[in-house]
Amino acid sequence: MNKHLENLIQVLEDNDLDLAYISDPTNIFYYTGFLADPHERTLAFFVSRSRKNFLFTPQLEVSSAKDAGFSGQVYGYLDQEDPYKIIAQHLTELSDKFRNVGIEKSQLTIARFEQLKKILPQIDHFFDLTAAIERQKLIKTNDEIQKMMGAGEEADFAFDIAQKNCRPGITEIELVNQIESALREKGVLHVSFDTLVQAGKMAANPHGEPTTNQVKDHDLVLFDLGTVHENYVSDATRTFAVGEITDEQKEIYDVCLEAQLTAMDYAKPGITAAELDKKARDIITKHGFGEYFNHRLGHGLGTSVHEFPSIMEGNEMMLEPGMCFSIEPGIYVPGFAGVRIEDSVHVTKNGVEPFTHTSKQLIKL
């Protein structure tokens, strides 16, 4: 039984729980080594306090689950079958005394929660495992960090492709296609999120999407991208200049860079997430751009591109070695330009180390 699963069973014991029902695919991967996107189908992992564990998956995924090295029982069901009847059958064989059950309230749908109550009517108490699972995933092992380093190297490769192809006249969508095509040719099967390219004033929308907008001479062009490497992700952002830019554009870039580099230098074990956010935010505010930095400084990542912790005001969690998160200040001036500079990092004994190494000094294409 792997260490992650041992820790989950300890959570059951500490909270007097008989059973855990895990439904989030990335959390199922974390405990079993098996990752699948079930779409509308049911994928469920049950762990009992007695150390028995069962994986219930669509029949078409059974072989993959077994090949992933999962040591527990794997049960499949056909599309025409009710998966919860099969779940009920095997859980009843194990015990009819499940009274206290842990679930992921943030992930479990109401429909599946009602199905669970139907097949286990004897349950007296449901306990939310979300915080406990987030805490477990918070500190990465050396093996996990190595996989994220691999994803970071792939992101650096993508930035190199971006620099080689970004020129006046090309559209944001064409740049996305060229980046993702090059990644596939390199053997990268998945990006961790839809690649984002925003040119000129389009970059002032932090959560926009690529369009047929053409890159123009004198634009700042923002690239936010990431890959999946052995089921662990990268997430990084760079902003490049196309030709010469104005003093106003350069000022925005320089302030954002100062905030990012200062936060990178300041981050270390013992400071809080809120203190780190404030360190970067104060610099941007000091230069008069505070109102244009309208999101948290960073977020955790690992098997998912957004995990715990949030690097933001109000989060008094202290940084610890092994934590992985992004540091991504941004300045977004509506109708003018947007700049974001982002590295994802892992906390070491003395500071942080980035997963990406593409230069952050202003690159003119």
TrEMBL record:
UniProt keyword terms in alphabetical order: Manganese
Reported cofactor(s): Mn(2+)
Peptidase M24 domain mapped to chain residues: 147-349
SUPFAM superfamilies, A to Z: Creatinase/aminopeptidase, Creatinase/prolidase N-terminal domain
Start and end residues of each Creatinase N-terminal domain: 5-136
Top-level taxon of the source organism: Bacteria
Similarity comment: Belongs to the peptidase M24B family.
Protein name: Dipeptidase
Source organism (scientific name): Xylocopilactobacillus apis
